[in-house]
Design goal:
Elements (H helix, E strand, L loop, with lengths): L5 E5 L2 H17 L3 E3 L12 H9 L3 E6 L20 H11 L3 E7 L13 H16 L4 E4 L2 H9 L1 H5 L1 H4 L7 H10 L9 H29 L11 H16 L5 H15 L6 H10 L3 H16 L6 H17 L9 H14 L6 H17 L3 H22 L4 H16 L3 H18 L5 H17 L2 H19 L4 H16 L3 H17 L8 H16 L3 H18 L7 H16 L3 H18 L5 H16 L3 H18 L5 H16 L3 H19 L4 H15 L2
Parallel strand pairs: 1-2, 1-3, 3-4, 4-5
Helix pairs in contact: 1-5, 2-3, 8-9, 9-10, 9-12, 11-12, 12-13, 12-14, 13-14, 14-15, 14-16, 15-16, 16-17, 16-18, 17-18, 18-19, 19-20, 20-21, 21-22, 22-23, 22-24, 23-24, 24-25, 24-26, 25-26, 26-27, 26-28, 27-28, 28-29, 28-30, 29-30, 30-31, 30-32, 31-32
């Protein structure tokens, strides 16, 4: 068996450590072995000999070209007769040794690691190097974001997998092996019977790859759960995992092999149809090209025979889905292009001819309107979903899979509109129908239960959430194991429900175990957003349990990692939420002035990033009012409490725990201002809302009841 080919990753460590790790992960998924050398300063001595030894054993060099020059040898390099950095030397030496070098040149939009700025002289040397690469006839790719870098690295498998299996067509696995069989390679030609078996397997694999390309776009559009905001790369990975199961492929097959297969379909398969090439471009993250190819082919098909109508609908739909992901310089999707293509598809559909086809296009339109994130667009999405559900339900029946999928989509939009009771009603109805048809371990049924449980958690129905998550943990552990990402997510949410119910010790143990498993997981690791989010949840639990020093330490550690890795950390939702949690710990520690200053900045940013009615924004607003009250500025705090209560009354259920906590805060303010009648009213509202939700022994229930009783006893 051949050893895995090794590739040297060349980059400036201080600027591109995260990009290098992403590249290494993408190479590893293709059974390559990445190598690199950390170089942070010239004080390490002359490292060129060590670099030459490392590069000598590699099959090629992948150079990520940023804007930093990095460290350089003690003296200008005599071999290349110029002043060069170690990173530049790595690529120049590799080319001298006739090794192939892949250049990925990052543009100004790429989110690099935080680092100290370099001297003007060094920046000029690196700018010259970048210009020379782009003008000197070298093959390179311009990269603007991590998803594009990952996609570009995945295509390396097409060029180099022959080092692994002697085939020049690894990316197109099926055709590569077919070529080996037909070409008479001895180790495949065992017998005529075995050849037929091999050929049959290869044809079957080719068909599965084609099916995966065709299903990728619609699958990616449906993989997110309620409350999630996955990147394109995360949606791709999750869609591939689902398609692996649907097609009967080993786990991880499509994530590893589909990009290479798509590369050949797009660039080398002469008989590929425009639709197949568009699907391939989509799989490679080349969404502008996918939109153009699909739309052009659809325009032609729409003008031909009626038999081409179905194909044109699929092509316009793919063009619209590609436009949704074709981001401009500001990170905004091409809404106008997507809408045009979806409307073209809609005009070709007819619910009396094929109601399922018509409903699919209606679903695409509704998803697009939800993505626009305005009240008007999301309200229109609700109307489209309800009309589609009524029409499809009448034709297909209430239990049909397409009808249930439309109802789930409607629930997602209602959740985005913070119309939580309606979203809950839809998902409970879907779950009841699915439980009649599906086995408990069915993926669709588990997904519905998960989304319903998340709604319960968001609505403050913690007992219901705890019950659902406990069952989901057992199911997913049996299906995928205790270390599976989904299992760990279910355990995190179970711990959250326990935390809100005051079961702090249990919650802390579950969080600690999930974080330990996630940190050791090759799929996640200590810097993954899941791992960091679970650490924040652990800190919140520690704070509620009175372990304030531990909570603050945990949050400071997470913030340091988030600020280092996040793009625009000052306006990153996760960073802002973590800062808000730290401010809450400061309040509990008596640092009210520090907390007020922090929260005023957080709220201003959250309103712009997430919106004024987002849960994170509302929570920070309530904490800001707490900070002002704890400093004795009761009139000012009263105004803030009334403002946030008005917003929460609009967005949340009447017994949501955020609202109850602000009733309690306002009651304390009014008590201090000697407005006892109104103080009693708000304290009683908090107590009445907490008792049925949390139970009589929950710390919040007891806190609200004690204040209510104290105020009732006062004159």
């Amino acid at each position: 068996m051949f050893p895995p080919p090794r590739f040297f990753i060349s980059s400036v460590s201080k600027e591109l450590k995260s990009a290098r790790q992403l590249t290494a992960n993408a190479l590893t998924t293709q059974s390559f072995k990445p190598e690199w050398q950390d170089i942070f300063s010239a004080e390490q001595g002359d490292l060129r000999e060590m670099l030459r030894r490392k590069i000598k054993g590699c099959k090629g060099v992948v150079q990520i070209v940023g804007h930093c020059y990095g460290a350089e040898p003690p003296a200008p390099d005599a071999e290349f007769e110029r002043r060069i950095s170690y990173t530049q030397y790595e690529a120049l030496h590799a080319r001298k040794c006739r090794l192939k070098v892949w250049y990925f040149i990052l543009d100004e939009n790429y989110p690099t690691d935080a680092h100290e700025p370099e001297a003007e002289e060094l920046r000029a040397l690196q700018a010259r190097y970048r210009a020379e690469l782009q003008a000197g006839g070298h093959l390179y790719q311009k990269i603007s974001n991590p998803d594009a870098l990952k996609a570009a690295v995945l295509t390396l498998g097409h060029d180099q997998q022959h080092l692994h299996d002697r085939s020049k067509r690894w990316g197109w696995v099926v055709l590569a092996l077919l070529a080996l069989v037909i070409g008479g390679v001895g180790w495949l030609l065992v017998s005529e019977h075995q050849n037929k078996q091999v050929l049959g397997s290869l044809v079957e694999m080719n068909n599965k790859m084609k099916e995966a390309l065709a299903d990728l776009a619609p699958t990616m559009s449906k993989v997110q759960n309620i409350g999630e905001n996955l990147t394109a790369a995360q949606q791709f990975d999750r869609a591939c995992a689902l398609l692996d199961k649907q097609l009967g492929l080993p786990a991880g097959t499509l994530a590893r092999q589909l990009p290479g297969y798509a590369y050949v379909v797009l660039n080398e398969q002469k008989d590929a149809t425009p639709l197949e090439r568009a699907q391939a471009a989509y799989a490679l993250g080349q969404f502008a090209q996918a939109e153009t190819l699909a739309a052009q082919s659809a325009d032609q098909d729409a003008q031909t025979a009626a038999t081409a109508t179905q194909k044109a609908i699929a092509e316009y739909s793919l063009a619209g889905q590609a436009a949704e992901r074709n981001l401009d310089a500001n990170g905004k999707p091409d809404f106008a292009g997507a809408l045009v293509n979806f409307h073209k598809a809609e005009k070709l559909t007819d619910p009396t001819r094929d109601v399922g086809e018509w409903a699919g296009v209606q679903e695409n339109l509704a998803q697009l309107l939800d993505l626009e994130e305005t009240l008007a667009s999301r309200s229109s999405a609700v109307d489209i979903y309800r009309a589609a559900i009524a029409t499809a339900g009448k034709a297909l029946g209430a239990e049909d899979g397409k009808v249930l999928a439309l109802r789930v989509g409607l629930a997602y939009v209602l959740d985005d509109l913070t119309r939580y009771p309606e979203a809950q009603q839809e998902l409970e109805a879907v779950l009841a129908l699915q439980q009649k048809q599906l086995q408990p371990k069915d993926a669709a049924l588990i997904k519905t239960r998960y989304n319903l449980a998340r709604l319960y958690l968001g609505e403050g129905k913690y007992a219901e959430a705890k019950a659902e998550y406990a069952q989901l943990v057992d199911l997913e552990t049996a299906l995928a194991g205790a270390d599976d990402t989904q299992t760990l997510q279910f355990r995190n949410n179970l711990a959250l429900a326990k935390m809100f119910l005051g079961e702090y010790a249990d919650a802390e143990n579950i969080f600690h175990d999930a974080i330990t498993r996630a940190s050791a997981s090759p799929k996640l690791g200590p810097l993954d957003a899941h791992t960091l989010g679970w650490r924040v949840n652990l800190a919140i639990t520690l704070g509620k349990d009175g372990k304030l020093s531990e909570a603050e330490t945990e949050l400071n550690d997470v913030l340091a990692l988030d600020i280092k890795t996040a793009e625009d950390p000052d306006n990153n939702s996760r960073v802002l939420d973590t800062r808000s949690e730290r401010a809450q710990v400061w309040l509990l520690q008596g640092k009210s002035a520090d907390a007020e200053k922090e929260l005023s900045d957080i709220v201003a940013r959250q309103k712009g990033v997430d919106g004024p009615l987002d849960l994170g924004t509302l929570e920070s607003l309530g904490r800001w009012a707490d900070a002002v009250r704890l400093q004795g500025r009761y009139a000012e705090a009263e105004t803030k409490y009334r403002d946030v209560i008005a917003a929460e009354t609009q967005a949340l259920r009447s017994d949501h725990h955020y609202l109850l906590e602000n009733y309690y805060g306002l009651a304390l303010c009014l008590q201090a201002e000697n407005n006892l009648p109104e103080a009693r009213s708000y304290a009683q509202r908090a107590a009445d809302g907490a008792l049925p939700q949390f139970g009589a022994n929950h710390p919040d229930t007891l806190k609200y009841q004690q204040l209510s009783q104290k105020l009732s006893a006062a004159n």
